């Protein structure tokens, strides 16, 4: 037919007419499918529009928007109704109505795809904004108790450090940080160059505080960072209830909400000790907020973040000044010639860490030691890597003293048993060293060694709660911090011997990764091998035998509890560092018959469920157990246990199976600290007659003491400080004939002392912070009969109101000065 139209058989006019006729017929044929399509569209939309109207009324949305959509729907319905009535005899009008249908359908589709889509986008943004406002209200409600969430150094930087010789780098860092164009600044330099010290110092700089106020946060990231733990810590230290994150995406979303709430004021976030490979973690903290800056400290410069500031080595003048300040602070000791000092300072190559440690090791040493140090340092002429620095630091360890028949170098090496950038409880070190090196149990020998390590600048000690003149050997608030390079040095020294000869074995288990020797010697852990190969291994290979006295195992949150069947037969100390929410004691603990000390510490934010505790039941040499931030299962019978320390744990099921006097009848010391679910003494505790020291502190739900307290006939020390719900003490306290120290400080609701407290032979009585204590029982005058002085430590106000008018000859009043810093006690409220 096309050929007919295009040829000369018909005239041109007739050809056009016929073409139009054919087009009309085709449109007419398409009319019915178009009509059906319109009917289907309208039928699908009708119920949805009714639901939109309903929600529109509930949410009080503008009526005009839904009315425009309904107008399009009504026009379409009217047209469809007309078209449905057209008979076949009107087929010549089908093309007209088919075009109308297409036009109406197009208008409806455009309205849905453009107008309604834009409206939905706007509504979604309003919902997000509304959710942020709700969260802001909730967050501000939580922050309210901290006067708008603003506290200095919330997540670290517990105190302002000294930065001797670093005034110029500090000034340059401040200038770079405060530039408007800088959002992320990387402070980079060799290990030990003072990056962390400078980052902490900048948090206290007057100009920086003037810019950011108290909205300054300091977070230590470390080699194996955990985003969830970091964000949980931020929430915690902002005074917020910490969310239970479902996914990593949830963590990032809630972090953004938190930062936007804080972003009402300028924010400075310091991410300290960021390792290569952690760039993606830093990216998650980059949120577009006005006046929000991130300061990163790292041994690498991270070019992707743009601005970096290289921290150079100290020049000779500043290096010598720092060295002399430490090495020659005791003027009565040997003072070397200037040339000798110059040579040693040159050997430190401008490294602040090397200068501090080596200067500390030479303080009070004779000429021969100084000369020997100079010769050692001259053997290495460069300082271009961490390995070079470790060599210099190692020189200072070779002259550590021997005290109490143990070389202090051994004690330093024990610091490598604990995770990087984590506090090490002094109480845990005392437990270890008392059993390993036969140091005295009160901790005085251990503290002497710790003091020497401090003097040599090998460690720092932070005290989170310090009362003036507190000398009763209580170290639960003392923690050791070790520079990560010095920790690496301790680990390096521990690995100098072969695996079979090491005194300490440190194992890190991340996810399904295992040490090479673990996979090689544990055939059940070999995947993909033939059955005959595995059988051969089972019969020919022995399981690994660990001959070390100390075993430390660190696991991450993805650890699957796939234990190798080791044979740590010689181990006397087992240190378990964990992050997972569920943790089972290894099967091989049942065979550790020489084990004396068990230390289990959860470094995650929430408490870990500890399982298989019964595996300890056969260990007759186990003397000390320390548990931190775990949910304790029912305890097993440990008849020879002498000390139990429980810190920040859930204890509600610990004593379900046995009375504690049946499970641990020979306890000499018990410490329970920051256990918020403890409402009463464990059943049977007063039946443990060997008990000499009992400390139940910061347990705010403890409201009463047992009436049979006097059954603890050998009790010498009773600490109940910061038990804020405790309202009274039983009169039976007077029966504690051997009690020499009673600490009830910060028991805010304690209204009276026992009537016969004067019958006690106390040496120390702590009453600081007992604000509801209005009067003293008359029996306190009997303290006059004591053959020794009694020290009462209390507030100045209490002295004036209660003690000032008493004339007791051997009474000594001490006014307490308290320094409290809980900033780096993670998860106190978790």
From TrEMBL:
Domain RPW8: 1-150
SUPFAM superfamilies: P-loop containing nucleoside triphosphate hydrolases, RNI-like
Superkingdom of origin organism: Eukaryota
GO BP terms in the entry: defense response
Keyword Repeat attributed: yes
Alphabetic keyword roster: Plant defense, Repeat
InterPro entries, A to Z: Apaf_helical, LRR_dom_sf, NB-ARC, P-loop_NTPase, Powdery_mildew-R_dom, WH-like_DNA-bd_sf
GO molecular function: ADP binding
PANTHER family linked: PLANT BROAD-SPECTRUM MILDEW RESISTANCE PROTEIN RPW8
Family: Belongs to the disease resistance NB-LRR family.
Protein name (record): Disease resistance protein RPM1
């Amino acid at each position: 037919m096309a050929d007919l139209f295009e040829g000369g058989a018909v005239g041109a006019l007739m050809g056009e007419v016929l073409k139009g006729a054919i087009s009309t017929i085709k449109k007419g044929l398409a009319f019915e499918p178009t009509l059906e399509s319109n009917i289907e569209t309208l039928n699908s939309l009708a119920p949805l529009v009714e639901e939109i109207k309903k929600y529109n009324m509930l949410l009080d949305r503008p009526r005009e928007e839904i009315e425009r959509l309904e107008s399009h729907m009504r026009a379409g319905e009217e047209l469809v109704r007309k078209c449905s009535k057209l008979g076949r005899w009107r087929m010549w009008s089908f093309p007209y109505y088919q075009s109308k249908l297409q036009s109406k359908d197009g208008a409806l589709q455009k309205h849905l795809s453009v107008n309604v889509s834009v409206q939905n986008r706007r509504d979604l943004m309003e919902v997000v904004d509304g959710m942020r406002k709700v969260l802001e209200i909730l967050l501000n409600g939580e922050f309210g108790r901290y006067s708008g969430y603003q506290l200095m150094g919330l997540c670290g930087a517990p105190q302002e450090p000294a930065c001797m010789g670093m005034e110029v780098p500090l000034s340059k860092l401040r200038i770079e940080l405060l530039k408007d164009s800088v959002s992320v600044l990387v402070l980079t330099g060799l290990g030990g160059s003072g990056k962390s010290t400078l980052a902490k110092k900048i948090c206290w700089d007057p100009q920086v505080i003037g810019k950011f106020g108290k909205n300054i946060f300091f977070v230590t990231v470390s080699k194996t960072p955990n985003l969830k733990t970091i964000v949980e810590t931020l929430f915690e230290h902002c005074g917020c209830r910490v969310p239970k994150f479902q996914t990593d995406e949830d963590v990032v979303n809630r972090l953004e909400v938190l930062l936007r709430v804080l972003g009402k004021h300028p924010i400075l976030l310091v991410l300290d000790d960021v390792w290569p490979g952690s760039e993606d973690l830093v990216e998650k903290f980059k949120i577009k907020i006005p006046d929000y800056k991130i300061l990163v400290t790292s041994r690498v410069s991270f070019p992707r973040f743009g601005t970096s500031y290289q921290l150079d080595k100290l020049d000779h003048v500043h290096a010598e000044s720092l060295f002399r300040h430490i090495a020659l602070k005791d003027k009565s000791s040997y003072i070397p010639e200037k040339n000798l000092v110059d040579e040693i300072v040159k050997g430190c190559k401008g490294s602040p860490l090397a200068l501090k440690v080596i200067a500390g090791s030479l303080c009070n040493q004779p000429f021969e030691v100084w000369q020997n140090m100079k010769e050692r340092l001259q053997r290495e002429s460069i300082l271009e890597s961490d390995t070079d620095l470790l060599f210099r630091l190692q020189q200072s360890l070779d002259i550590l003293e021997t005290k109490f028949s143990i070389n202090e170098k051994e004690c330093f090496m024990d610091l490598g048993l604990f995770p990087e950038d984590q506090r090490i409880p002094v109480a845990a070190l005392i437990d270890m060293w008392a059993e390993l090196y036969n140091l005295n149990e009160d901790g005085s020998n251990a503290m002497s060694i710790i003091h020497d390590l401090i003097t040599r600048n090998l460690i720092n000690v932070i005290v989170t709660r310090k009362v003036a003149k507190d000398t009763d050997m209580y170290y639960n608030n003392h923690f050791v911090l070790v520079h990560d390079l010095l920790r690496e040095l301790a680990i390096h020294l521990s690995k100098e011997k072969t695996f079979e000869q090491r005194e300490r074995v440190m194992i890190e288990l991340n996810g399904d990764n295992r040490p090479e020797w673990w996979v090689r010697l544990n055939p059940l852990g070999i995947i993909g091998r033939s059955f005959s190969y595995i059988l051969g291994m089972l019969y020919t290979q022995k399981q690994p035998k660990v001959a070390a006295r100390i075993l430390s195992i660190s696991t991450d949150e993805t650890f699957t509890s796939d234990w190798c069947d080791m044979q740590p037969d010689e181990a006397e100390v087992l240190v378990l560092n964990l992050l997972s929410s569920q943790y089972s004691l290894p099967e091989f603990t049942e065979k550790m018959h020489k084990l004396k000390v068990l230390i289990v510490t959860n470094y995650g934010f929430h408490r870990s469920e500890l399982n298989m505790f019964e595996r300890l039941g056969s260990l007759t040499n186990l003397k000390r157990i320390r548990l931190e931030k775990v949910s304790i299962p029912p305890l097993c019978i440990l008849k020879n246990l002498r000390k139990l320390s429980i810190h920040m744990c859930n204890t509600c099921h610990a004593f379900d199976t046995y009375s504690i006097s049946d499970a641990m009848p020979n306890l000499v010391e018990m410490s329970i600290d920051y256990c918020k679910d403890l409402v009463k003494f464990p059943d049977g505790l007063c039946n443990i007659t060997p008990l000499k020291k009992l400390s139940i502190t910061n347990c705010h739900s403890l409201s009463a003491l047992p009436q049979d307290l006097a059954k603890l006939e050998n009790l010498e020390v009773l600490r109940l400080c910061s038990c804020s719900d405790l309202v009274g003490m039983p009169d039976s306290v007077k029966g504690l004939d051997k009690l020499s120290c009673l600490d009830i400080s910060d028991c805010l609701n304690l209204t009276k002392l026992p009537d016969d407290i004067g019958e006690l032979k106390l040496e120390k009585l702590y009453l600081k912070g007992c604000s509801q204590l209005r009067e003293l029982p008359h029996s306190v005058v009997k303290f006059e009969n004591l053959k020794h002085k009694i020290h009462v430590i209390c507030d100045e106000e209490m002295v004036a109101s209660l003690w000032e008018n008493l004339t007791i000859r051997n009474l000594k009043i001490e006014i307490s000065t308290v320094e409290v810093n809980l900033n780096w006690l993670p998860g106190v409220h978790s």
